[in-house]
Amino acid sequence: GQHPLDVEFRANLSGNPDASQRNLSIEVLASDLNVAEGFDDYEHTQASGPWTHTPECIHSDDKTEEYCVYTNNSFAHGRGISFFTSPTIAVRIAELSAFTNQSVHDNVNNFEDPPWEVRDIPGKGNGLFATRELHRGDLILADTPVGVLQSDAFFLDYLIGYRYLHTAFDRLPDATKDLVMRTAAHSPGDPYMERINTNAFAGEFEDKPHFFLYPETSLINHDCRPNTLYYHDTSTLIHATYASRTILPGEEITITYINILQPRSERRAVLKQTWKFDCQCSLCSRSTSSNQESDTHIARINHLQTHLSDWSPTSIATPAMAEELIKLYELEGIHAAIGLGHMLAALAYNADGDVSMAKKHARLALKGGVVTDGSREKDEDDLRALRESPMTHWSYLARKIQELEGRMGKGRC
Ligand SMILES: C[S@@+](CC[C@H](N)C(=O)[O-])C[C@H]1O[C@@H](n2cnc3c(N)ncnc32)[C@H](O)[C@@H]1O
Questions:
Q1: PROSITE patterns from the entry (predicted)?
Q2: 281: Cβ below 6 Å to ligand 1?
Q3: pLDDT value at position 375?
Q4: For residue 222, how far is its CA from the centre of ligand 1 (angstroms)?
Q5: Whose alpha carbon is nearest atom 15 of ligand 1?
Q6: Which of 70, 317, 365, 376 could join 343 via S-S bond, C-beta 3.0 to 4.6 A?
Q7: What gap in Å lies between CA 351 and CA 91, rounded to an integer?
Q8: 66-72 sheet: strands from edge to edge
Q9: Which of 222, 224, 281, 283 to probe ligand 1 with, by most ligand atoms within 8 A of CB?
Q10: pLDDT-based confidence at 410, cuts 50/70/90?
Q11: Which tops the pLDDT comparison, 41 or 102?
């Protein structure tokens, strides 16, 4: 599993240079949609599932790849949703609780009395500002995506992909289309594609890369030391953003668009390239010496995380490394990772046979909230098992045993 801080959640979808290298049997990109060859636009006649419109499909010349627009415009009590994805994935989508149990969306997309207001900030556009004091774990907003798009679908032919993108959004209810058009577009170009590029989250869905557009979450600006963390539930499709520390009224609510465990220069380069702004965030605008110190901490954090996640026989991880990691997260203000730090500490202590320290950190990890690969439930179940019964947990003495086996192995040779 990957830690969320290791994942770039937002990335650029248009004009991917890899497209030409992909091994697809497709015609050369046609300059005019009307003369594009090699594609059959056709409608699926055996459409089934929760779709309110007939899926519209595109496929590669050799028919090994097919992608369709699937819309349900009553999704989430009338907000609607469109997918541009493969038929096999659409079958799986129809089975999600998001479609089989409408009540999962009873308390989302509700912005009647939010703990924030939208303000326009010079140089940043709109942003969210807290109107009440928020504490770690408080919900800031939860919304469902209006567009979910498999990136591969665009590699067949960008221009035709754009047309399907338009079909996907045009089929949504008018109020939802307005929400989409109210999100920012940082570059001129196709209005929908630019909104995806500026606002969408990139993630895996059914093991394939997809982009998710959440209209309200899109209002949150970036900070390299954000005061929130977020979870995406792949079953309900709800994206929920929570406070990761105390946020005072009037303070801007921020998330990170990038892996924040990179040095300042790299962070700024990605933000400039993908989101077209020069980052002046709380961290980036500190003095050079303060940033050099932070870069050193970040390098050390990456080093410690790597070792503490290493369960191979050659792992050199120790509980002391986990304690150092937690201190560094705190020192650097990486609040979202505190739960992860305690989880790594719980495992490191248990792997060393220190059951009482393992239990203590398992408790703190559960309290802090932890998500390593997008599945909070999985991590929490594992931590609860560790807290209840450390000696039967998979991690118990794991590194000690490996160390012993290593020594015995050497002895035998
Ligand atoms: C997802 S949108 C955020 C909301 C946006 N400000 C709006 O008006 O709707 C991303 C865009 O906001 C701007 N932005 C986000 N964070 C920023 C920051 N820290 N500094 C300057 N601009 C920022 C950039 O133009 C970026 O492409």
A1: SET
A2: yes
A3: 60
A4: 7
A5: 221
A6: 365
A7: 42
A8: 42-43, 56-59, 66-72, 81-85, 147-150, 208-213, 201-205
A9: 222
A10: low
A11: 102
Give the closest residue (by CA) to ligand 1 atom 25.
Answer: 186
Alpha helices in 171-287 (DSSP H): 174-182, 191-199, 264-275
Calculate how far, in angstroms, residue 181's C-alpha sits from the geometric centre of ligand 1: 15
Q: Which two tokens stand for residue 353?
A: 């046979």
Model confidence, pTM: 0.86
Alpha-carbon distance of 94 to 357, in angstroms, equals 44
With a cut of 60, say whether residue 145 has pLDDT above it: yes
Which residues, in sequence order, are CB contacts of 391 under 8 Å at separation 6+? Answer: 355
**Ligand 1 atom nearest 275 alpha carbon:** 27
As beta bridge partners, residue 386 has none
- CATH value of 6-255 in 2.170.270.10, 3.40.630.10, 3.40.50.970, 3.30.460.10: 2.170.270.10
- Is the minimum distance from the CB of 217 to ligand 1 under 6 angstroms? no
**Predicted-complex ipTM score:** 1.00
Does the beta carbon of 197 lie inside 6 Å of ligand 1? no
pLDDT at 354 over 80: yes
Longest CA span, the chain:
73
Instruction: Give the pLDDT mean for 125-149.
Output: 96
Tokens linked to 146 = 């209006």
Which residue from 186, 255, 277, 278 has its CB within 8 A of the most atoms of ligand 1, so it is best to mutate?
277
End-to-end CA distance of the chain: 35
